[in-house]
Specification:
- The chain is built from eleven helices and 21 strands.
- It has 429 residues and is of the alpha/beta class.
- Strand 2 and strand 3 form a beta hairpin.
- Helix 7 runs parallel beside helix 9.
- The longest helix is centred in the middle third of the chain and has 18 residues.
Length: 429
């Protein structure tokens, strides 16, 4: 099938036609072939890539499945997502990651890359089957115990050493467990006023500092998940200045929301790591703008209604993110003049693809590149309605928000899986 996106604006600002033939971009310029899709006033980005997604399958299909998560991803403009390992059973063996990989292929709406657990059962004691998962059909290269911290320094060192042999990366959930026992929110003025157990910034920063030094010692790759504190940004900035192989991500919700929202006691704002202060938010935006923080990752964390609509202390940690991520980045970074559209493509597509080693993702929109493309309307505002989301869960903190920039078309390997903002029912075989 050959078709053309006509009069579409590239991240550089240039207006061109993009001719798609099969699963590749045939040309970018003035040519037009096959059916035409008018994209006047729309912006084309390389398909978005999420390095941090919770799909819950196997074991927690009441929250999300690989299929429903892929549908949410496609609606959000993502052509690749990375499935975290905290499933049931845990993705700590070749068999489980291959199951997730197969389910992603069957969904056919985006690439689904399983992330393998660092330790058996996420218990932090023994390394999981890292080599077997790397050699499996899923070819896992990113490993994480996300949801839990690899807190034992010797276990973390061994993991960094092991994945170095095949070019892998350890993605660390930086949270000292002893400093965060029974923690419910960010430790600070608001937690003191509300009488909720606080989650100090140092609990995150101490692990980041330790792991930066470990990564430098063994000369391996470290990725910091969901960075949230001003001090953490400074630690990553220092590490990069030393030439240490560390990358970091920030979530959309940590770019916008603060701990003051917890005053409502609405568990929709309960998340791990917690919402921090405005000073932290400002530091995260600055770190993302200057390249200290490499990517935006959703930490899409679906939960069934009963796990969020309850008292604060009993509620699950986590928020949805796939369908609102791009709009939050536009709101916090583009509308504030901190980002160009090239920057958006960098943090939501090319950089996450490089970190994950996803070779058909994040490529510049030029002839010969894979046809993984997200087309957005940068001026169209839309209202978030949790009942209209494609996820099986409804725990978005942005319900009722009016957000900028709407995904119009999502093209995965040449197949238009979202057209005019709606899933087409088509998939890539």
């Amino acid at each position: 099938m050959t078709y053309t996106l006509t009069n579409v604006t590239l991240p550089s600002g240039e207006v061109s036609n993009i001719v798609i033939d099969g699963n590749q971009i045939l040309s970018v310029g003035t040519q037009s072939q096959g059916d035409s899709i008018d994209c006047t006033g729309l912006i084309a980005l390389p398909g978005l890539v999420d390095l941090h997604t919770h799909l819950r399958e196997p074991g927690k299909e009441d929250s999300e499945t690989v299929l429903s998560g892929s549908q949410a991803a496609a609606k959000g403009g993502f052509t690749a997502i990375s499935a975290m390992a905290n499933t049931s059973p845990v993705a700590d063996t070749a068999g489980v990651v291959e199951q997730v990989f197969r389910l992603g292929k069957e969904a056919g709406l985006c690439e689904v890359f399983p992330i393998g657990a660092v330790t058996v059962g996420l218990a932090g004691e023994r390394l999981s089957e890292l080599g077997a998962m790397a050699d499996s059909a899923a070819q896992v290269r990113v490993f994480s115990d996300d949801g839990k911290c690899v807190s034992d320094p010797l276990v973390m060192r061994r993991a960094l050493e092991y994945v170095k042999s095949f070019g892998g990366v350890i993605a660390q959930h930086a949270q000292d467990p002893r400093l965060t026992e029974n923690a419910q929110m960010n430790e600070g003025e608001v937690s003191s006023r509300l009488g909720l157990a606080g989650w100090p910034a140092v609990a995150e920063e101490a692990i980041i500092a330790r792991d930066i030094l470990l990564a430098d010692h063994v000369k391996s790759r470290l990725h910091i998940c969901h960075l949230t504190t001003k001090g953490g940004v400074e630690l990553v900035r220092w590490a990069k200045a030393q030439g240490i192989s560390v990358t970091a991500e920030v979530t959309p919700h940590h770019l916008l929301l603060t701990d003051e929202l917890v005053e409502s006691y609405d568990p929709i704002y309960k998340v791990n790591p917690p919402l921090r202060t405005q000073d932290d938010v400002d530091a995260l935006r600055a770190g993302l703008a200057d390249g200290t923080i490499d990517i935006v990752a959703t930490d899409h964390a679906p939960h069934p209604t009963e796990d969020k609509e309850c008292e604060w202390s009993a509620a699950a940690f986590g928020m949805l993110g796939l369908e609102t991520a791009l709009s939050i980045v536009v709101k916090t970074m583009v509308e504030t003049k901190k980002f160009t559209w090239t920057d958006v493509a960098r943090v939501l597509s090319s950089n996450p693809a490089k970190i994950g080693g996803y070779v058909r993702q994040g490529q510049e929109l030029v002839a010969g590149s894979p046809a993984n493309i997200t087309v957005i309307n940068p001026t169209l505002e839309w209202s978030v309605n949790r009942e209209e989301l494609s996820s099986k869960s409804r725990n978005t903190p942005f319900h009722g928000y009016t957000l900028p920039a709407k995904v119009i078309h999502t093209i995965f390997e040449g197949v238009i899986v979202v057209k005019d903002g709606e899933l087409t029912g088509k998939k890539h075989d």
